[in-house]
Amino acid sequence: MKTIIHVVQHLSPGGLETMVLNMLAFSDPCYRVFICSMEGSTQQIMANWTQLVPFKHQIIGLDKPQGISLSTIKKLHSVLKDYQADIVHSHHIGPLLYTSCAIQYNSNRIKHIHTEHDAWHLNTYKHRVIQYIALQLSTPIVVADADFVSRKIRNIFKTYPIYTIKNGINPSLFTIGDKYQARNKLQISLPKHATMIGNAARFETIKGQQHLIEALRLLPASFHLLFAGSGSTLVALQQLVRQYKLTHRVHFLGHIDDMPTFYQALDLFCLPSNNEGFPLSILEAQACGIPCIANDVGGVKETLSADSILVPNNTAITLSTAIKSMPHHTISYDAREFILTHNHAQAMTKAYEQLYFSGGNI
Questions:
Q1: Architecture of domain 179-342
Q2: What angle do CA 331, 179, 190 make, to 5 degrees?
Q3: What is the pLDDT of residues 237-262, one digit of tens each?
Q4: CB atoms within 10 A of CB 233
Q5: Average pLDDT over every residue of 148-172
Q6: Quick one: which of 47, 75, 53, 49 has its CA closest to 62?
Q7: With 149 labelled, which of 121, 217, 220, 263 sits at a CA distance of 20 to 30 A?
């Protein structure tokens, strides 16, 4: 039985981490698959994210300290040796470097796959140098999760071969549901014919939630905003809502475990980010039949069905105009069909498994 070990920086709710969990869920049962998190102990990781419970025997925490850690390289080397890894799959630049170093000490040849989930870090010279060194150490097979990421890597590392496998989600989990039942489940009290615009992302400046709040000022009073998430800008956003006298129209739910119900409660989903990679939230919303509006950054345009709208910027005027132009209170079956066709996690996982064991051909 072949053993596959994914290496991530940390295991907490996020797009990259959710993608890796999907790969565990849809992996062929003939493979042993584990996730090795550089940060956090196994106990801490399990305590902080309930979604990991079904995979509790497949989670490994290295408890990496702050800064560069030679001991973490040794721990990762031991994990690869003890679990008799055949494939090690790193995600993002930190795990790439540590994995490239760790496999130097393994007597058995381990195949290294690396996925780039965005290309922002390659804008800095330091990160380009680190990436170059890591690629030279282990010569991993590199996979981009979006066409725009592939182009970015090719522009920097001219001759390095790059594969593209787009991220997928579980459409059996994210399904079409009854809007009013979902709102009752979330305990949201709204006028019956209110139009609910949703956003699910970390509260950070880069995610652009302030633009969505400003856009709400330009919309009729029947429009409401529903936010899922937490982060460093939460207090500032709440203050902005009070300043604009929108407290009765903006609802902060905090961290939500039941994301399918969150999406089902919406009429529209909006992602006004300043930067994105290949956002899973848009895929999840569309799988629930919810049309989306999103700023044209990163790989966002690759995630949208014909029923959704790509906007050229995230100003309040642009967002509010797009929101007004969208049909409201209707389910988008075409959006769900788009996800079933292009972004099913099962197809994504099979593409990776083919790459693992095909000698680099997919």
A1: 3-Layer(aba) Sandwich (3.40)
A2: 125
A3: 999 999 999 999 999 999 898 999 99
A4: 17
A5: 94
A6: 75
A7: 263
